[in-house]
Amino acid sequence: MNKQADLIVYGGTPAGIGAAIAAARRGKRVLMVEPSAFIGGLMTSGLGETDIRSVDTSGSIFGEFLAHVYEHYVSVYGENSKQTKECNGGLRFEPSVARTVMHKLLGSEPGIEAVCLREIVSVQMDDDRIVSIEVEDVQTGAKAVYGAQQFIDAMYEGDLAAMAGVPYRLGRESRDEWNEEFAGKLYCEYRTKEVLPGSTGEGDDLLQAYNFRLCMTDNPDNRVPFAKPDNYNRGDYTSLLDDIAAGRLSSFGEIVKLSRIPNGKTDTNNHHNCSCSTDLPGENLEYPEGKREVRERIARRHKEYIQGLLWFLQEDEALPDKIRLEASRWGFAADEFPETDHFPPQIYVREARRIIGRYVFTENDARLAPGTQRSPIHFDSIATGDYAIDSHATRKREEIGQNRALEGFLGFGALTEVYQIPFGVILPETVSNLLVPVAVSATHMGFGTIRMEPFWMQLGFAAGVAADMSQSSAIPVQQLCVDRLQDELIEARQIITYFRDVKADHEAHQAMQYFGTKSVFTSYEANPDAACTVADASMWLNMARALPGGARLPALPATDRIAPAGVDIGPRKLAKEQPYRLYWAEKPELSRAMAVRWLDATCRSLGVEYRGRFADGSGHSVTRGEFVTALYKLLKLSRRKR
């Protein structure tokens, strides 16, 4: 059946869900198309330990997801229950709970229609615009055409973008290409961060390893035993025997990473300190550009490899009894993934295509900007990220790794700062009605930190808002006013700048978010409650005049001693008065009276009405937060009049 919508979101991933909800809340008819039978991507397929360092760096739709998860555990088990405590404010969750929450979020928006088991097979273009996509029912082979005004590719693989002709990159850049210190070929011991010989920094076509995130339990009443796969190959795992004999490994929990989630379950992942865990480096290279049959074959190989690993750890008599006994305590959670024999349905595609967009995000964008106290500032920031620059291995065990490092495996948390994510990374240059919030424009190293579901979900939300604005304004996404997009995102509680000292409930929070993208602040402290100096106020006004809506902002009064009209100011001997350079050095703070005068003149200049807090606040001086709040409000009022 053919369908028509305002927006088509290809991919029911967290990013796709964020995009669909954002657009639907703004009145758009959204068709979300998912090629698998399940929505939610990795967050509903076993990834229950959220990859984020601080929730203060995330807001909007991801914050809603966390709140719903927390509310679920409170309503089912009680506020003081073990399960509620284990969910850690919503950051840790069972796959079934994540699925329930995702369906609840989608179900609350009547403007969204979700269609599963439909895979894109072609794209119809009109010049630089996508007109429609042709999809195939993966069960019956029946084809249909879905049309829309706007499109968002929210899939891990970037298939829609590729079919629309958006250029993309696979593999790793060299150190030289983007001046990334740790790019390219690298042998780094994960635990100690020691870089080993052989780390030449050359680029290649390799991808970081994939795996599945398993939901396991050691509760015998809810445990399904591990089964031996049909294609079991003991040789895949015998290197573990050497590791154990050499004392490098001594327990089941050192071979697979067991992260606890509620109700006695785990998010089981590859272990960083084990050279033979659940990852399968080097066997995913055909996946990004492969057809369905290729991807299914690769996913099946990864599944059978992991099943074989678990069988080996429980049953192989060459292992120490201690490890076999520990492994025998575990099985798949019986109440998770019943449709797929308790094994997660979604392979963990950590990285596939990366589009070449307006801006390429690199390792340097997530590190400290030289000469400042924060990561680089992006005027078009639409979200923030907070996770280590990270990559899983690209090659299996080699002699050069000295049994200490797998090539390409790295995690540089100490080097990674909270960072802004610019609009340019989701913005193709060649297609005027497409946004790509997952297969973003980044180097391998830059992608290594953006590639976390909380950030993808927020990028999806931003893409949904941008798609609505593009359609409503009848302009290409490349011509959107980024400042207006930021206004809308900030209003929706998206975090686009992180400050340590400006919490979400601070009255200056929105203004600080915005001006944090305009180089007003060069550290993670904005000091919103400190007195505002006339020097800072003048500098911020100079910057604001260059922003949309700011051209008519008047300068600050040159003095704070202006008498009201009608008051005789003579006699006065100006030549004997203190020079203003000395005066402002002695009295550097912006007084409320001076700020009120400026505000009155500004409102007259812009033709708007706004009182602000200047006259109502306590103390002689205006605070930094009060001034930027007024300045941001005036800019928004001016933009809305244009």
- Round the mean pLDDT to the nearest integer and report it: 97
- Assign the structural class, choosing from mainly alpha, mainly beta, alpha/beta, alpha+beta, or little secondary structure: alpha+beta
Largest sheet: 7 strands, mixed
| CATH A-level architecture of the largest domain | 3-Layer(bba) Sandwich
Strand content: 5-15%
Q: Give the helix proportion (percent range).
A: 25-40%
Describe this structure in words.
The chain has 642 residues and is α+β, with helices and mostly antiparallel strands. It has 3 domains: 3-169 and 420-491, 3-Layer(bba) Sandwich (FAD/NAD(P)-binding domain), CATH 3.50.50.60; 214-340, no CATH class; 509-641, no CATH class. It is 30% helix and 14% strand. The chain contains 17 helices and 18 strands. The strands form 5 sheets. Strands 1, 2, 3, 4, 5, 6 and 18 form a 7-stranded mixed sheet that branches. Strand 1 (3-10), helix 1 and strand 2 form a beta-alpha-beta unit. The chain is globular and about 105 Å long. The two termini are 42 Å apart. The mean pLDDT is 97.
